[in-house]
Amino acid sequence: METLLTIRDLQVQFDTRVGLVQAVDHVDLDVYRGEVLGLVGESGCGKSTLGFSVLRLIRPPGQIVGGTIYFDDLDLLAQTEPEMNRLRGKRIAMIFQDPMTSLNPLQRIDDHFIETIRTHEPMVSKEEARQRAQEMFGHLGIAPERLHDYPHQLSGGMRQRVMIGLALILNSDLVIADEPTTSLDVIVEAQILDLMRDLQRIYGVTMMLITHNMGIVAEMADRIAVMYAGRIAEVAPAQALFDDPKHPYTRGLLRSIPNIKLKDQSLEIMPGSPPHLIDRRPWCRFAPRCAHVMPACQQVNPPLVRVGPGRQVACLLYE
Amino acid sequence: MSENLLEVQGLKKWFPVETGFVEKLLTRQKSYVRAVDGVDFTIRRGEVLGLVGESGSGKTTTGRVILRLIEPTAGQVLFDGIDLLRLPGEELRRLRQRMQIIFQDPFASLNPRMKVGDAIGHGLVIHNIAKGQQKRDRVCQVMEQVGLVPAPVLYEKFPHQLSGGQRQRVVIARALATLPDLVVADEPIAMADVSVRAMLLELMLELKEKLELTYLFITHDLATAKYICNRIAIMYLGRIVEIGPLWDVYSNPRHPYTQALLAAVPVPDPRARRIHPMPKGEIPNPINPPAGCRFHPRCPQAQDMCAEAEPHLVEVAPGHLVACHR
C-alpha cells in the first residue's frame, strides 16, 4: 500500500495559563492512498488538533513544536505559508463540523464554488466554474436552483453537502473530515455518510475521518486509529479492531458503548475520566483507569509496537 | 392511587411566529410553530418512558409543557390524578417538589457563582423543606447517593472546579434533593464523554430503583434509550407516530419513520453496516406541517390517502400503537 501521509513524532502544544498542554504527544500515523482512516477518541484527546496540524491550521497559543508530516514526499512543516495556501483546498481539503461557520453568510452557494475553483485554477472562466459546480450538485443530491441560495436558506444537511462538494470540487488527494455529522440528526447523518462513501469511491479520494462515534468509524473506515490523551493508543484494520481490541482503553470503550442491535448487552463502566494533558513525565496516561496497570506503566511512555498484520498498540502488555 | 403517575391528553403547544410590522398589517392570519400538536401518553409509576425524536420533533417542548415550565396551548396533564394545567400558581409551586427536571447542559443550568452544595439544596430552601444544618445534611446525603464524594468537600466547590461528569451528577442531585416522584430527564447524558456515559446511565437506573422514581427520558439517542427505557414513544413533527414496549418497537418497528430512525443509528460493528435506504430530505418546517400524515412526503411507502387523512394511533400489538395508514 502506498502511503500518502506520514506523520512522525508529531508534538503540538498549547501554552495556557495553567501550563503547557500536550495536545498531540509524539504521534506516529500513516494514511494510505485511497483509504478511509477513522481517527477516534473522546473530546480533548487531540484528534482534531492532529487533523488541523496536517493543514498547519494550528493557531496560537497552539504550536507544532516537533516531528514531521510528509504528504506525498512534501515536507509539510517546511513549506512556506504561500506554498501551504496552494496546497490547502487544492490537494488537502477539510470538512468541518459546523458548516454554518465555515460558509460565508454573505456569499451565494455558487460563488463559494467559483471562488474555490478560480483561486486555485485562475485560468478557469466563471461560466466554466459554475458549470462544474452544477455537475457537483448532481452528485450532492441538491436541486441545481439552490446554487443561488445563501447559506442560511439551506438546511443543516444541505449545508454539509455543500461543504463536501467544496472539499471535492478540486479533486483533492486528501480530505480531512472533522466530526462532519456531529451537528446533524441521525437520519440526515446517515444520508451524509452515504454521500461521503459514494463520493469517496467516485473520486478515489483518501479520507481521514475524525469522530468520537465508534458507530461511524465502524460504518465508514477501512482502518482505525484510536487516540487517548494526546497519543495513539492503537491502530488496526476496522474489523480487527472491533473483533479483537488490544489496548485496554479500546476494550473498555467498546464495551461501554451501546449497540442498538443487541438486546441483552450489559454495559461495562470505565472508571475515572480522561487526564489533564499538562503532566509531562513519561507514563501511560491510561494507567489510572486501567485494570491491567503494572508498576512500569507509571514510568515509561508505552511505544507503539507492531502486534500483527497492520496492527499497532501502545501498551506494555504487548512489549 | 391510580396506576398511572402521569396522563397526557391532546397536549398542544403552538408558538406564535413573530412577524414584522408591515407583514402584520398586510396579513390577518397569524402563523404558529406547532411544536407539540396533539400528544397523548401515560407513564406508569416506576416506569421509564423514552421520548425519542430528531431536533424539531417537539420532544423537549413536551417535557417542559408537562411541568408547566411553559404554558400549553391546549390539552390535559394529570399528575397523580391532579389536573396540572388548571392548578393555581401557589399549589403548582408546592407540587413542583414532586416533579423535577434534569437539563442537558450542566454548564448552562448551574449558576457559576453558587457553590454546588447550595445549588443542590436550593429546592429545599424554596419549598421550605429544610434550611441551615438540616439542609446541609440532606444535601450531603443526596451527594453521596449520586457519587459526589467526599460530599462535605465538594459541597464548597463551584461548578467550574468540577469535571464534566461531576457537574452532570450535581444536576442529577439537584433534581433529586426534594424527593420527587417524576423526573423529566432532557438529554441528561448527551454532553458527557463517551467513556462516562455508561456510568451516568447506570447511576440513573440505580437511583430510580432506590428512590422509586418515574422518568420521562427525552433523547435523540436510540441506542442509549435501550438501556434505561421500559417503553418508548417516537415523535415526529409534534406528534407521536409510534409508542410501545421498548423491545417490541425496536425489534418490530411498524411506522416507516421509526424503521428509518432505527436503521440510521450507526452500529459499532463493521459487519453490521447499514443497507436500509434512508428517506429523502429532512424534517419540514413545523409552521405548515404537511397535510395528512406528516411523514408522507418523505415516506417510501406513501399512498394517496396518506396525503389526505391524518392517521391516528392504533393498537397493533398489546400496548404497541402506531399512527400509520398501512
Question: What class do helices, strands and sheet pairing of chain A give?
Answer: alpha/beta
Order of strands in the sheet with most strands of chain A: 6-7-8-3-9-10-12-11
Q: Which protein chains are joined by the largest interface, and how many residues does each one contribute?
A: A-B, 41 and 42 residues
Give me the number of helical elements of chain A. 10
Mean pLDDT of chain B: 91
**What profile does the largest beta sheet of chain A have?**
8 strands, mixed
Q: What does the average pLDDT of chain A come to?
A: 92
Q: What is the count of β-strands of chain B?
A: 12
CATH topology of one domain in chain B: Rossmann fold
Helices and strands of chain B, in N-to-C order?
EHEEHEEHEHHHHEHEHEEHHEE
Structural domains of chain A: how many: 1
**Spatial shape of chain B:** globular
Q: In percent, how helical is the residue content of chain A?
A: 25-40%
Oligomer: heterodimer
Main attributes of the structure:
heterodimer, A: alpha/beta, Rossmann fold, eight-stranded mixed β-sheet, B: Rossmann fold, four-stranded antiparallel β-sheet
Q: Mind explaining what this structure looks like?
A:
The complex is a heterodimer of chains A (about 325) and B (about 325). Chain A is about 30% helix and about 25% strand. By secondary structure, chain A is α/β, with parallel strands linked by helices. Chain A has one domain (about 5-90, about 170-260, about 270-320): 3-Layer(aba) Sandwich (Rossmann fold). An eight-stranded mixed sheet of chain A has the order 6-7-8-3-9-10-12-11, sandwiched between helices. In chain A, strand 9 and strand 10 (about 230-235) form a beta hairpin. In chain A, helix 4 crosses helix 5, helix 5 packs across helix 6 and helix 6 packs parallel to helix 7. The model of chain A has no long low-confidence stretch (mean pLDDT about 90). The mean pLDDT of chain B is about 90. In chain B, strand 11 and strand 12 form a beta hairpin. Chain B has a domain at about 5-100 and about 180-240: 3-Layer(aba) Sandwich (Rossmann fold), CATH 3.40.50. Chain B is an alpha/beta fold and about 325 residues long. Chain B contains eleven helices and twelve strands. Chain B starts with a strand and ends with a strand. Chain B is globular, with a radius of gyration of 21 Å. Chain B has an eight-stranded mixed sheet with strand order 6-7-8-3-9-10-12-11, with helices on both faces. In chain B, strands 2-1-4-5 form a four-stranded antiparallel sheet. The interface between A and B is large, with 41 and 42 residues.
